[in-house]
Amino acid sequence: MIHQRMIIWVACLCFGTQTLFSQSVPAPLKRFLDKPMVRGASVALMVKEVNKGTVVYEYESERQLIPASVMKTVTAATALEILGEDFRFETSVSYDGEIRDSILRGNLYLCGSGDPTLNSSELDTPKDSILRLWSAAIRKAGIREVTGALIVDESIFDTEGVSMKWMREDLGSEYGQGSYGLNIFDNRFRLYLESGVAGTTPTIKYCEPDMPSLTFHNYVKAVPAPADSCFITGFPFSDERYLYGAIPARRSHFKLTADIPDPALFAARYVHAFFQREGIRIQGAPSCHRILSRMGQWKETTRKTLITTYSPPLKDLARIFCFVSHNLYADAVFKTLGLRYAPSSKEAISSFGRGAQVVTQYWKQKGIDSSSLWMFDGSGLAITNKVTAEFLCDVYTYMALRSKASEAFVHSLPRAGIDGTLRNMMKGSSLQGKARLKSGSMSRVLCYGGYMDHNGKRYAVVILVNNFTGKSRRMRASIEELLLSLFKKTTPV
């Protein structure tokens, strides 16, 4: 045995590891690895039959790679396990002081628990319907006037709504919205531009919802070609927003989407104005915990709850953030997991950090090696996130076989050729509807993780590709070709 190992080692030195290893690489994978756009890239693959736990295909499965939004599957799985599929976020309206002669001599409070669904465009509910429930509860309590203010209490999470690990180009973008103790409108607003002839600067028409506190620095140009390279950027809690890039000339209604920089303060102002229109007069200026704490004016008082409203159940939220890759939903759930972590008195740790601690510890307790998991957010937007194909396959296998929330997790993943971000993948092929996968993409990164149902068996499937060259659409087509080839035969071999 010793001599045999020595011969193999010498052969590796003489002929290279790739020559020997290629003998165990299936032909479809070898064709994929030989593509010019994959040469120089880092690739990891694992396919495991769920019921038997048998590894069918494996390539560099212990290599730590950036998973992008495939990390959302880890967030979803852990949350369904710990919080339960019926968990709901709560938002309450309360007051301090006393009510006399229809006047509240005190403050109204809007207390958040991180709910990402308030006035969310992802829910099939009328705009402001939840606010109407709140105002009805206030009027039912006999309150027509408030001598104090409407104050948003978003203190359940810290003020690091945007991860320090996110890239500068993501800040202020429509997908880089922060997650806070109180969120509203998906923490996004829409900005509409009108462009003239090529070479001119488009004019800003209006925002939805209205953002009167923001100052826009417009460096956008109109161009003749049907190009769209325009984006908005800016920092959290800053009222300065910068517009760069180009939009097509002669457009009367060009839409951009960006993040709300201070959702709690915006919500306080928005809800204050709504209550005023509903006939509830509030004398004080709307504010939030962050502002009042910074000014030394926050006071802990005894409050009485008027109404508590709830989000849809977690199983529905997981389906949303995996289907449409909603970063806010995923990060809000991730930070909620972090509430289960109690740091020591000497440990300074953010809400993102607490979430990572809970996730890592949980899977370790379940017997899955989580040492390869480097998790800095729940959405996968941080480029410092790292994970192995093996870890993901182990989690998927656990969720399919042992989890009480198995059905909720599996159905949170979009079906290839049918749903969500996978609606165009493998469409019309033999695997349409048989693959449930979460996609993940960023610059030179494309990944997939989930399940494949084939010939009466279920397989956990993970493919991670980092640092490829060329267009993402070409890489997507190559991965699609690889998966179709791997599952082409009656039984994968």
From TrEMBL:
Signal peptide: none annotated. It comes from the Bacteria. The keyword Protease applies. Keywords: Carboxypeptidase, Hydrolase, Protease. Pfam families: Peptidase_S13. Gene3D superfamilies: D-Ala-D-Ala carboxypeptidase C, peptidase S13 (3.50.80.20), DD-peptidase/beta-lactamase superfamily (3.40.710.10). It is an enzyme of class 3 (hydrolase). One of its GO terms (biological process) is peptidoglycan metabolic process. Its EC number is 3.4.16.4. InterPro entries: Beta-lactam/transpept-like, Peptidase_S13. GO terms for molecular function: serine-type D-Ala-D-Ala carboxypeptidase activity. The keyword Chloroplast does not apply. Belongs to the peptidase S13 family. PANTHER family: D-ALANYL-D-ALANINE CARBOXYPEPTIDASE, PENICILLIN-SENSITIVE CARBOXYPEPTIDASE A. This is D-alanyl-D-alanine carboxypeptidase/D-alanyl-D-alanine-endopeptidase. It comes from Tannerella forsythia. The lineage of its organism: Bacteria, Pseudomonadati, Bacteroidota, Bacteroidia, Bacteroidales. The gene is dacB.
